[in-house]
């Protein structure tokens, strides 16, 4: 298409405000799919995405639209991942567009996640078209939402489009606004090829499919291209686009978005944000803004049934085919057996992988407490990255420890503000800003990430009855008074329960863990101490009382079949017992301790 007839845009929306419904509506209106095909939401194509209402992988759709002025346009709708864990991927998708539709629920108003994304979009110099969706709802307050868009975001909302993605109201207006308000891309068809690798995924038939945005020059079948950051050379064997069905094209020119395949076997060879250029006639400099995907949250994943270890390994390899941002290496634990230490982009990413492993691969898994990456500066001047509390060096050799911090934006109705402030304060937060808009508070805090991976999000949601929204970005490492806390059962260290905590939190966390273990470990014929310790110093302690003889007698009495059953159960349990001194702990106890999160 001629470059002035191309419009590249994304849709920015808070979860559930109607992004997917609107995307489907636009596809339907421009003839991409029949009504029958529309019965399924097209862009959310994974079960977990649909259930959680989030988009994990970006997709893009090319639409043909004949505007009211009679001209034909090519509209590329870029769907962006909908969660903070994927902020970098979102930034690359946005960098591939010139504009965005800002979809805000007419009954819910502006939310924190909307803000974070809209600011990114503004940073990319996007032309933003506000769309107030769900105006069919009785609770819709479009005027109030317009005022919010102006007051909170600072965007003019006078010509916001009032729409209902559900009933179809305003869809034509949205299409016209895309054509007339969002500018066409710019690019030089004669310059050497310069294209951005926006996203990639594994397709069983095509191999790795790469979503690209061409900046200058052209991409053609048979062309030899170089991935500048990876330093690899590939031969392009297919060029095309999605409508959303696959369509093969001869070439992709400047300003266009489409896909290529190049017989690439693994997505790990394709880095989001890389610059693709012609191998023989390369562009002078790669595109700015490239970052390597780096896991920020780590945890141990162990099969509940030790026999599932190989299956777990295979399943992880399969998942990694499509998600290079997830890493794993083998780990052994005395308490949990063989498993893997895994790295993720964030907590949600962790949950998604865990859920896919259990659901798609039918694995029963146990995860250890999530940990962030600490920078350990040693007395000899060297620095180690710590991913696992078990690897913590002896504190006498440590000069200082730095931990990652985040900048968090929380958006919460007034009535819950007090409790949220307390939560942030308890988590070592530093308040940066507090503003009120339309009966809601917008709160910004600097927080240590390790406090956030420890059930912060769940607490936030329960305190606010689900009304608070939360968004964050990393702001680098800072020194902290951090210590390794170990849990001892009968004076023996339980490796799977060790964690890195701030000294000020150690006692409370230790006490909590001891109380929990006390309830989970069965009584023995003698007393069992459960302790939390930092180094050699005990900071919390519980004792499991000894079992009285008469209780056992009662327990093992009764009819013979019941007794047999009990014995069998015991035998089965024995297999999974872990010994701590003379104490036998069923593996279920650790699993339960960790499951309570
Ligand atoms: P997303 O999370 O932003 O992709 O939101 P979805 O498109 O999945 O929509 C979330 C929910 O809102 C779904 O149940 C939709 O059916 C519903 N929804 C979307 N648009 C409208 C609308 O215009 N009016 C009404 N009443 N419901 C809508
Ligand atoms: Mg969606």
UniProtKB/TrEMBL annotation:
Family (UniProt): Belongs to the GTP-binding elongation factor family. LepA subfamily. Belongs to the TRAFAC class translation factor GTPase superfamily. Classic translation factor GTPase family. LepA subfamily.
Q: Lineage from the top down?
A: Bacteria, Pseudomonadati, Pseudomonadota, Alphaproteobacteria, Sphingomonadales
The species this protein was found in:
Tardibacter chloracetimidivorans
Any one Gene Ontology cellular component term annotated for this protein = plasma membrane
Annotated Tr-type G domain ranges read 4-186
Q: Which GO terms describe its biological process?
A: positive regulation of translation
The reaction(s) catalysed by this protein are: GTP + H2O = GDP + phosphate + H(+)
Q: What is this protein called?
A: Elongation factor 4
This protein's membrane topology, according to the annotation, is: Peripheral membrane protein
């Amino acid at each position: 298409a001629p470059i002035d007839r191309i419009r590249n845009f994304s849709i920015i929306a808070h979860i559930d405000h109607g992004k997917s419904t609107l995307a489907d509506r636009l596809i339907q209106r421009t003839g991409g799919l029949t009504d029958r095909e529309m019965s399924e939401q097209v862009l959310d194509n994974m079960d977990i995405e649909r259930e959680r209402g989030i988009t994990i992988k970006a997709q893009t759709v090319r639409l043909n639209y004949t505007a009211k002025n009679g001209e034909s346009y090519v509209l590329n709708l870029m769907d962006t991942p909908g969660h903070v864990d994927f902020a970098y991927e979102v930034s690359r998708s946005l960098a591939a567009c010139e504009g965005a539709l800002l979809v805000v629920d007419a009954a819910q108003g502006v939310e924190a996640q909307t803000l974070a994304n809209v600011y990114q979009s503004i940073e990319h110099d996007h032309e933003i078209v506000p769309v107030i969706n769900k105006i069919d709802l009785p609770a819709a307050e479009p005027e109030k939402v317009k005022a919010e868009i102006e007051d909170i975001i600072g965007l003019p909302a006078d010509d916001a489009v009032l729409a209902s993605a559900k009933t179809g109201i305003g869809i034509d207006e949205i299409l016209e606004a895309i054509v007339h308000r969002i500018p066409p891309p710019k690019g030089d068809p004669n310059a050497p090829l310069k294209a951005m690798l926006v996203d990639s995924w594994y397709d069983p038939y095509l191999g790795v499919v790469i979503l690209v945005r061409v900046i200058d020059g052209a991409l053609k079948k048979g062309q030899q291209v170089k991935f500048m950051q990876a330093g690899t050379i590939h031969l392009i064997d297919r060029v095309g686009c999605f409508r959303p069905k696959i369509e093969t094209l001869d070439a992709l020119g400047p300003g266009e978005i489409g896909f290529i395949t190049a017989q690439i076997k693994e997505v790990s060879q394709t880095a989001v944000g890389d610059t693709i250029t012609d191998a023989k006639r390369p562009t002078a400099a790669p595109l700015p803004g490239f970052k390597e995907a780096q896991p920020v949250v780590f945890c141990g994943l162990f099969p509940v049934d030790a026999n599932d270890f190989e299956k777990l390994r295979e399943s992880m390899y399969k998942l990694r085919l499509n998600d290079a941002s997830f890493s794993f290496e083998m780990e052994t634990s005395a308490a949990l057996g063989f498993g893997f230490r895994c790295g993720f982009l964030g907590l949600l990413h962790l949950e998604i992988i865990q859920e896919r492993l259990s659901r798609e691969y039918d694995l029963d898994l146990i995860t250890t407490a999530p940990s962030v990456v600490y920078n350990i500066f040693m007395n000899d001047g060297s620095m180690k990255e710590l991913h696992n509390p078990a690897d913590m060096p002896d504190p006498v050799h440590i000069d200082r420890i730095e931990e990652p911090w985040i900048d968090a934006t929380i958006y919460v109705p007034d009535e819950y503000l007090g409790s949220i402030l307390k939560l942030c304060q308890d988590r070592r937060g530093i308040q940066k800003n507090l503003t009120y808009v339309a009966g809601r508070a917008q709160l910004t805090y600097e927080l240590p990430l390790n406090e956030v991976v420890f059930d912060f999000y769940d607490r936030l949601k329960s305190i606010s009855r689900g009304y608070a929204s939360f968004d964050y970005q990393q702001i680098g490492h800072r020194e902290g008074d951090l210590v390794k806390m170990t849990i001892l059962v009968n004076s023996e260290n339980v490796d799977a329960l060790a964690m890195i905590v701030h000294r000020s939190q150690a006692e409370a966390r230790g006490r909590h863990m001891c109380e929990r273990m006390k309830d989970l470990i069965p009584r023995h014929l003698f007393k069992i101490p459960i302790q939390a310790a930092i180094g050699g110093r005990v900071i919390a302690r519980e004792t499991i009382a000894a079992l009285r003889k008469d209780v056992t007698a009662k327990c093992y009495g009764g009819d013979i079949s019941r007794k047999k059953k009990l014995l069998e159960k015991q035998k089965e349990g024995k297999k999974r017992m872990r010994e701590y001194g003379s104490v036998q702990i069923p593996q279920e106890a650790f699993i339960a301790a960790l499951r309570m999160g």
